[in-house]
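Re: your question from the hallway

Yes, I did run it. Sequences:
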Amino acid sequence: MQRCELIRQLLAILPPDSVLYETEDLRPYECDALSVYRQLPLAVVLPCTEAEIIEILQLCHRERVPVVARGAGTGLSGGALPHAQGILLSLARLNQINEIDPLACQARVQPGVRNLAISQAASSYGLYYAPDPSSQIACTIGGNVAENSGGVHCLKYGLTVHNILKLRVLTIEGDVIEVGAEAYDSPGYDLLALLTGSEGMLGITTEITVRLLPKPESAQLVMATFSDLAKAGEAVANVIQSGIIPAGMELMDNLTIGAVEDFIQAGYDRQAAAILLCESDGMAAEVTTEIEKIEHILRASGAIKVEIAQDEAQRQLFWAGRKAAFPAAGRISPDYYCMDGTIPRKHLARVLSQIERLSAEFNLRCMNVFHAGDGNLHPLILYDANESGELHKAETFGARILEICIAAGGTITGEHGVGMEKLDQMCLQFSDAERELFLAIKAAFDPQALLNPGKAIPSLHRCAELGAMHVHHGQTSFPELPRF
Amino acid sequence: MQRCELIRQLLAILPPDSVLYETEDLRPYECDALSVYRQLPLAVVLPCTEAEIIEILQLCHRERVPVVARGAGTGLSGGALPHAQGILLSLARLNQINEIDPLACQARVQPGVRNLAISQAASSYGLYYAPDPSSQIACTIGGNVAENSGGVHCLKYGLTVHNILKLRVLTIEGDVIEVGAEAYDSPGYDLLALLTGSEGMLGITTEITVRLLPKPESAQLVMATFSDLAKAGEAVANVIQSGIIPAGMELMDNLTIGAVEDFIQAGYDRQAAAILLCESDGMAAEVTTEIEKIEHILRASGAIKVEIAQDEAQRQLFWAGRKAAFPAAGRISPDYYCMDGTIPRKHLARVLSQIERLSAEFNLRCMNVFHAGDGNLHPLILYDANESGELHKAETFGARILEICIAAGGTITGEHGVGMEKLDQMCLQFSDAERELFLAIKAAFDPQALLNPGKAIPSLHRCAELGAMHVHHGQTSFPELPRF
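Structure:
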């Protein structure tokens, strides 16, 4: 179908202000927060109702037009990058909270509702929605479902998939399906988990039933200072192994500490090799006991200083430093490349040392600031895009980090998704048989590959061309990589 | 392929004691714990290694022979019922614990390892495996994965899917795939969740990496006695809504209490309409505070007596009554039919009243003893198979209970699976579009439908013939049923 005819048909479904097609109107949608990839779509549609989306999907299905869904565009892997021959389906206007049920501790919300808005709306009932990606002011729950987002507190409270009960989803044919249940378990294959994190490739979510939790009675934060990064890594494993699951457990290295202190004065020790922030929440008595145990373990793990926040203001200040780490990186480097990989916690110390060696090898600084309790690394590679070759060097450095993660038995993404960015690494992470299954599942939902084509799951052809050797979950040796 | 030729080829792969084909040898495999369905397979194979299973699958795939996997055969929905034209693949001999990693708090085990054996092996490290189906002495971890089993403690610690990290799985072609990761999240579609609970229809698991938890420092039990069943139901919702997640929360009605007290003297009040057992575990200080709060809520919810176990012996005695409920049913009735459905907790009181009314309508006694915290009902319908028509009446009664569960926004199974038993109810629970997706996913893994054919997912044809009206997760009205 010609572009003009497509736009004409979209305008027959939607009011004029819901269809964008002028280049200047399309421009804001050309990328998500990973701006190295940019592409204009044929048109952007901004439906207000599920009924409109059904008609849009029926049209696209009939005419074989690719459909890329978009929430707030805060994604970091290019998952919402438009398709040159497709439409961009913005879900921003489906932003209603349909119901809050305080008795059942759940809420039914539309996909365009912002993550934080759910907790704000539930607040008067003493409830909140637990997953808290750092973009939670802006990102939408629909995008969280598509990426299976995490956050600082997901160590204790789980990822998005652990905090949703039901999804209402449209297939590419425009059929409504409901997956999951308000009850504890659901028969049939677990489509709720399958759809969560599927990066918009299997269906379009139009309603999400989320689980709400009672706000913890109390929260307390411990800051531990280390003169050795590896020891901080070991301390993380020691805390978890003791049976404590902290509400949050974040690690920052010396470069991060300095950048943060220059930006806001959080009270971190600039001389420290690493700082570990460890939070406990729950009933007051539980928090007190847990904080004592954590303090003991951190000291026994070699912390040179352990401070418990004196009051709520200091707790907030300690956290403020962690939350300012990304903007702080922007202040000490013209550009930075944020990686996202996970490793088993027990390998934290070793992998951090390896990243340090790579940093020297590539002659690029790397800030380590991450969800240590989950083993979810976020190395920020600092570079200058105006220096010839530095972007390429940063990308190569980043790819090497992901390879190290795989070799350590980890994965190439913790919470940012695969999107466009990590298609090649998917060839390393998974075998042919595994990727064939992914493709078969995709075909089961969307045989014409119209939903977000070209993302998340690489074609067998791409992996064959890449010629990369599959690292079977850390089991197979990978000659050029350090062994575990 | 003729049966004799099949057996000959199986004997070429396996040693003689690993292939059973005489009728008397096949007889023990003709059913699982749901003995109303019985069927002899062509042969039973008992491989000892993954390599043997690969050859068996390649043979069956090539010759289009159905394959039904079996763990310990403790399943309650007929999921391991043999196929008349197929082989039964017993995984009982793959019973090795390959590794326990106390640092990472995980274990790699073969599918034939018994659930309890994992905790026993991990015990010396102070660790245990949390999901505890009532059959945990006998049932195997492979069967738990196939059914996504729960147990008394899954309210706090989750179902099987929440306690496993990785699966090694063989496809029907005999390809090895690994799904999940030792790290916190994994890219690609969530095949770990998809395979867990798939009732042996997508692949054959050969290794499971389970998460181990540190044994709680302390556990304490509260027993609350109610003069009104509905009030006990409300008390459950009140406890959960307060933000407490008990380690276990079990409800028994008057009929159960009497049967249990006649059998073992657990110290329950025979006059009570209902008894609620509510356990707290964790750090000692946490348990003390939580038990106080639970006690307060139970009293406020109308409990006429609240007792805290005086010592470990009394705690075990209170639990012993609950654990003896099923055999106690066997003592007061020649036969019983155990149902398994889940409902949102807030509807507990109403659904229990409805079951009471159905009991009068069918003139069959029904014992209610169940995982109240999860809303996971286990009504035991008492009947006498020797009385003409009673089995049919019990089955109709059971089907009505499941319909009530669906109408209440619940599901037709909490933890026992669909198997053979609930194929028809799947037509009520899911729409055509939803079941079509299930079938498409099945075809993505197993296009010739050789793995456990005829189970768990009904054909579109079967549902059409049944002519039953789909109850869309409690949204659609269902005329002959009480409304919510």
